[in-house]
Specification:
This protein is of the alpha+beta class. It has helices at 13-30, 53-66, 95-108, 138-145, and strands spanning 3-9, 42-50, 72-82, 86-91, 125-130, 151-156, 158-165, 168-176. It has one domain: Cyclic Phosphodiesterase, Chain: A (Alpha-Beta Complex). Helix 2 (53-66) runs antiparallel to helix 3. The chain is globular. 22% of the residues are buried. InterPro entries: 2H_phosphoesterase_YjcG-like (IPR050580), Cyclic_Pdiesterase (IPR009097).
Length: 191
C-alpha cells in the first residue's frame, strides 16, 4: 500500500469556478493542460507518499493536532510566475496563513515525510499553469496575464487533504478549525 496525499486550502466553489475559467482559457489558448489535473488549491504541505496504515493514522492525527486556529480572511490577487514554467495567482502572505502552514509543518516534522531538500520556504500561491508550458509560450501567457486585475477574498475555517487516486487528486478529508484556546497543553511536571 502506498498513498499520495496533498495538504492544501481549497477556495469556495464560486471562486474555484472563476479560477477554473482562467485555467481553461489558458489551456485553450496556449495548449497547456497539466494544471487542469489538479484542484484549484493553495499547497500547505508538499505531496507526500505514505506506505503504511500505521503511518497514515499518525499523519492524520498530527493534522488534527495542527487544526487549532482562528478562522481568517484570505485574499488571492493578480497574476505572477516562477519563470520559466509556472504561472499563478498570488496569495496574500498574511500572518494567519503563514502560521497555519508553520503549524502543519511542525506537526508533521516528526514523521520525517519530506527529504530535507524539499523542506521548502513557504511562498503561498495558486497555480494556474505549469509543467507543460513551453519556453516560447511562457512569455505570451505572462504578457496577457501580468497586467490583468484579479481579486477574491474568502473565509478560511478549514484545510483539506486530497488523495491521488487513478491519476487524479480527489478530496479525501477536511479539518475544520478548532478554537486555539481548546488545544490540549503538553503535560509538565512544573504546572
Amino acid at each position: 500500500m502506498e498513498n499520495l496525499f496533498l495538504v492544501c486550502l481549497i477556495p469556495p466553489a464560486s471562486i474555484v469556478e472563476d479560477i477554473d475559467a482562467i485555467r481553461n482559457d489558458i489551456s485553450d489558448k496556449y495548449k497547456v493542460y497539466v494544471s487542469l489535473k489538479r484542484p484549484a488549491h493553495i499547497t500547505l504541505y508538499n505531496p507526500v507518499k505514505i506506505s503504511s496504515l500505521e503511518k497514515e493514522k499518525i499523519f492524520f492525527k498530527a493534522l488534527e493536532n495542527a487544526a487549532f486556529s482562528e478562522s481568517f480572511s484570505q485574499i488571492i490577487l493578480n497574476f505572477n510566475s516562477f519563470a520559466p514554467n509556472t504561472v499563478y495567482i498570488d496569495v496574500d502572505k498574511n500572518s494567519h496563513i503563514m502560521q497555519l502552514q508553520a503549524q502543519i509543518k511542525l506537526a508533521l516534522k516528526p514523521l520525517d515525510l519530506l527529504p530535507e531538500k524539499n523542506n521548502f520556504k513557504f511562498n503561498p500561491h495558486l497555480t494556474i499553469a505549469f509543467k507543460d508550458i513551453k519556453p516560447v509560450t511562457y512569455p505570451l501567457i505572462m504578457q496577457e496575464y501580468k497586467g490583468k486585475n484579479f481579486k477574491r477574498e474568502f473565509l478560511v475555517d478549514r484545510f483539506s487533504v486530497y488523495k491521488h487516486v487513478d491519476k487524479r487528486w480527489q478530496p479525501f478529508r477536511e479539518f475544520l478549525f478548532n478554537n486555539p484556546n481548546d488545544k490540549p497543553k503538553p503535560l509538565s511536571l512544573f504546572d
